[in-house]
């Protein structure tokens, strides 16, 4: 995990410096030459690139993500602490709604195989994968805000903390998740239902609820858990477009601004957070396997 994160940090550090443009060029354009040099010296941009790299790694090992090049006087950590909870709220709501709805639809489709509920769920799944998130977001804005005036169209208002401001972004962000989990869970449930131990359980007269939960549900969840871990981090990346459309002052909007402004330290700080979350989520998935399926053991028994 540590090696992977180190490779990502190193790669992003050098890649962002290959992008044309200078983060301080526009800020120091009309200033005297000496003051420009002072700006570059303050942020270490006057030193060789390899020296900048080792200086950044040294600060990073001390827990310092550096100071933003665009938001003068504000550290990357402080900006992330403000923006990350906003994105986390939207993304966790979307993930919970998407997983719950997807599992329910997948179970319905599997139990009504080759009947109209199955066809309806598969249509929703195909639409969820095919329709881009920005199309879904603008459609929701038009119908629920412009046409019917039921919900606010943007999230950045004085009363943003109200739940109603998060409904449309949550639905727009969770639509693809619903489609993915419905398809995976349907296929997984159908595979489990064809196993011999299911036929044995039915022959023993096990009730429908116990059958669905203990024999079908747990075993069918393994493929779902596999894609759940990466999606926890991936959904933050997917929210960049949604946050821009709904004007949500979250992680995604700041990330896009950092790229446009060539804010190197901000890009690196947010990339470290996203990749760290992604790597940890994969590790947690491996641990959860052992809890869901007793056949999978994390630790070897002694003796």
From TrEMBL:
The keyword Signal does not apply. InterPro entries: MetI-like, MetI-like_sf. Keywords: Cell membrane, Membrane, Transmembrane, Transmembrane helix, Transport. PROSITE patterns: ABC_TM1. It comes from the Bacteria. Gene3D superfamilies: MetI-like. It is found in: Cell membrane. It comes from Cetobacterium ceti. PANTHER family: DIPEPTIDE TRANSPORT SYSTEM PERMEASE PROTEIN DPPB-RELATED. One of its GO terms (cellular component) is plasma membrane. This is Oligopeptide transport system permease protein. Residues 84-289 form the ABC transmembrane type-1 domain. It is a multi-pass membrane protein. It holds the Pfam family BPD_transp_1. The lineage of its organism: Bacteria, Fusobacteriati, Fusobacteriota, Fusobacteriia, Fusobacteriales. The keyword Nucleus does not apply. Coiled coil: none annotated.
